[in-house]
Design a protein that fits this description.
By secondary structure, the chain is an alpha+beta fold. Helices cover 32% and strands 25% of the residues. Helix 1 packs across helix 2, helix 4 packs parallel to helix 5 and helix 6 packs across helix 7. The longest helix is centred in the first third of the chain and has 23 residues. The two termini are 29 Å apart.
């Protein structure tokens, strides 16, 4: 029997997040998740009048393919999958994340080829820019362990977060969306952080259940050459099978000129993927009232209430600052008092202190979104 909370979620994904219309083609990608999940999504797509397609994936199989892959193979796989993605109107992906370190022994050469060829074409250029897309995790014991919860406790947390009233959140985000239209300088301060940049002329985007679930962020992008100063992130991040901690960047005229972490060499290899990887592509506020602590999963951590993320790599088309890269790495700084606090100012006016929005932006605080 399918969990009724999962039925609610699948219905919302098809009818609210993707808003599937009659005749629209929908690609369902299932990475290490139960078959009944894909089955339920297929039913919902058919009921909405859409045409479902399915990819069934495995991270272990992905690892096996990449271990000895060469450029020719990755370019061929990119052509095949890009052809299908090009033909889609919508895309939904559930990723099981059974082992966050599954790709840890894949070589740097293979990972860089996959990121710069496959991910750039299939996901950044086609899926993100051409489809109505939404990406989710799926609750399992591995994710519960990362979150420091029992499996049952994490499942309850997961469905509470994912089945939030996102339409209410969407309305609350209007105040920030309106404010960002006139902002020039952003100034972020906190432990190990004193950074300024401009967002002048860059559009903003409300994320309220239409692209990622769980959701809860409002993003824009820094003017490409405007960032100066230092930021020190206090949230760990998995990339390429490695858990990065204590990441710190120094910027000069938009470019990361110094980068440190618990593995500085590996960090700089990612930033050297291409020229755009050392520039910023996104600046975002996290506002999900139910997500308060990191669990080393970007889809959750970037939505943490009282956080921001500042992203090395490619920008989004709807908040375009001109930066292109095969990298898009959402790195999170939590500014609530239990994580060291901090302030954010717009053009000299403090608009958030210690994770709490002030004035007309207070509608985005946790107590107003539940």
């Amino acid at each position: 029997m399918i969990d009724p909370r999962l039925k609610t979620l699948c219905h919302s994904l098809v009818n609210y997040s993707m808003a599937v219309k009659k005749g629209e083609r929908v690609l369902i990608e299932n990475f290490d998740c139960p078959e009944e999940l894909s089955e339920q999504l297929i039913k919902e797509v058919y009921e909405a009048g859409g045409v479902p397609f399915s990819w069934v994936r495995s991270q272990r199989i992905q690892r096996a393919l990449l271990l000895n892959a060469d450029r020719e193979q990755i370019e061929a796989q990119t052509r095949y999958d890009a052809a299908l993605m090009q033909d889609m109107d919508a895309y939904v992906a559930f990723r099981g994340s059974l082992n966050t370190s599954e790709l840890s022994d894949v070589g740097e050469e293979q990972l860089n080829l996959y990121r710069s060829i496959y991910s750039k074409r299939v996901h950044h250029e086609l899926r993100v820019k051409k489809t109505k897309w939404v990406v989710l995790r799926y609750p399992n014991a591995s994710m519960a362990q990362l979150a420091g919860m029992s499996t049952e406790q994490f499942e309850d947390f997961y469905f509470k977060v994912c089945n939030l009233d996102y339409s209410k959140m969407d309305r609350a985000m209007d105040a920030m969306a309106e404010r960002l239209k006139s902002v020039d300088e952003v100034h972020i301060t906190g432990p190990g952080t004193d950074l300024t940049f401009s967002v002048k002329g860059i559009p903003s985007k409300k994320c309220s259940g239409h692209m990622n679930i769980p959701d809860g962020e409002i993003y824009t992008a820094p003017v490409k050459d405007s960032a100066n100063g230092r930021i020190t992130y206090n949230t760990p991040s998995f990339s390429q099978g490695f858990k990065f901690e204590n990441i710190s960047f120094e910027f000069k005229n938009g470019k990361i000129v110094d980068a440190k972490a618990n593995n500085t060499e590996k960090l700089n290899k990612i930033l050297d993927t291409d020229e755009g990887a050392r520039y910023l592509g996104e600046f975002s506020f996290g506002v999900n009232p139910y997500i308060l602590h990191p669990m080393c999963d970007t889809l959750f951590d970037e939505k943490i209430a009282g956080s921001i993320h500042l992203t090395p790599g490619s920008c989004y088309e709807d908040a375009d600052n001109g930066n292109e890269s095969a990298v898009h790495w959402d790195l999170v700084l939590i500014q609530r008092p239990d994580y060291g606090g901090g302030e954010i100012a717009f053009d000299g006016e403090v608009i958030r202190r210690d994770g709490k929005f002030l004035g007309d932006l207070a509608v985005l605080n946790e107590e107003n979104l539940i």
